[in-house]
Amino acid sequence: MLSILIPTYNYCAMPLVSILWKQALETGIDFEIIVLDDGSSDRISIEENSKINTLSHCRFERNETNLGRAETRNKLAEISKYEWCLFLDSDVIPVKKDYLKTYIAAIGKEYDVVIGGILYEEKKADYSKILRYKYGKSREENKADIRKLNPYSFIFSGNILIRKVIFIAHNYSSLGNFYGLDIYFAYQLYMDNVPVIHIDNEIYHLGLEDNEVFFKKSLDSLDSRIKLLGNKPNIEDINSLLKHYNILRKRKLDRLIATLFKLSEPVLKKLILNRNPNLLSFDLYRLGYICSIKPS
């Protein structure tokens, strides 16, 4: 009935698997849990994850080389055996004790994709990770009633229940290993009118990147976003940053913004990478950066 699929890289997925395994057994459904390691170098996490093989209906496998999350998810879907797939990142923990039961109740309805949402723990993050934490709390935590207003703008592949055939038909692994490919996946679902429903069945996102790492990944995602989606029809319906970018470009203001960005970039960066990150500055930085990217 349900394949629970978890890609991992240098992270111990055993705590997550233990919770999901117990919940799955309590429901009495047919299930499998597959954790696929993407060429990790950390021997401790590999040894810990190997213990997953001791649990019934569970298995731990490894890629010989690092393929990237998109290709690893694709491989997980291909080796899974049930009609419905629940994709989870390894660095998350379900918020509710009836997390799986809530998702199972959504199976068989008129939707092909069910999004549960994301939360961040209330405890204050270390200052070295405060940018990712603050961004997550401010921009990613949304109740289902809010997400339903624009359902394709809140596709988070780290907590998604989806029909296997739908995932395989819309997978993006052939594009390579880009950061921020959830937006491309969401666009594919949007253009094909795949039915999506949002519910309140959140996970806590635990594995926060350091400020500099998250900052760089955010910029990397803009490079791929422009390359893959910059000229796509109706992209403004699912991504506000590309919406504003295209408005500026149509009004021939993108070069002006790029020039202003070049002058203000050092100041904006200081406002972002400090002990109290300014998210408005982060928005302005990303808009200026995306206007500065040269068309391919």
Gyration radius over CA: 20 Å
Shape: globular
Q: Count the strands? A: 10
Unreliable sequence segments: none
Order of helices and strands: EHEHEHEEHEEHHEHHEEHHHH
DSSP helical segment count: 12
What oligomerization state is this entry in? Answer: single chain
Strand order of the largest sheet: 3-2-1-4-8-6-9
**Residues in helices, as a percent range:** 40-55%
Largest sheet: 7 strands, mixed
Mean pLDDT comes to 93
- In percent terms, what proportion of residues is strand? 15-25%
**First CA to last CA: what distance?**
44 Å
Give the structural class.
alpha/beta
Structure, explained:
The chain is an alpha/beta fold. It contains twelve helices and ten strands. The strands form two sheets. It has a seven-stranded mixed β-sheet, sandwiched between helices. A three-stranded mixed β-sheet has the order 5-10-7. β2 (31-38), α2 and β3 form a beta-alpha-beta unit. The mean pLDDT is 93.
Short description:
With 296 residues, the protein is an alpha/beta fold. The protein has helices at residues 14-27, 43-50, 69-79, 99-106, 130-140, 144-147, 164-170, 182-191, 211-229, 240-250, 254-272, 279-292; strands at 2-8, 31-38, 58-63, 84-88, 92-94, 113-115, 118-119, 159-163, 196-198, 203-205.
Descriptors:
3-stranded mixed β-sheet, 46% helix, 7-stranded mixed β-sheet, 12 helices, alpha/beta, single chain, 296 residues
